[in-house]
Amino acid sequence: xxxxxxxxxxxxxxxxxxxxxxxxxxxxxxxxxxxxxxxxxxxxxxxxxxxxxxxxxxxxxxxxxx
Length: 66
Ligand SMILES: [Zn+2]
Fold this sequence. Notes:
Elements: E1 35-37, E2 44-46
Antiparallel strand pairs: 1-2
The protein binds zinc ion (ZN).
Zinc ion binds next to loops.
């Protein structure tokens, strides 16, 4: 039996039962966290946290104060 794996950009999804975990406390954004116990089936699965932050900056046209 091959490894089951899930990928989501919204919330960690249990690879065993498919339970989607809520992340109200921001715990799932900790990149040092490598495993998690499913709230629904109580099985522990490996977890990798990917965070992505971007900034887009645009110059304003009317910045001259001469
Ligand atoms: Zn589960």
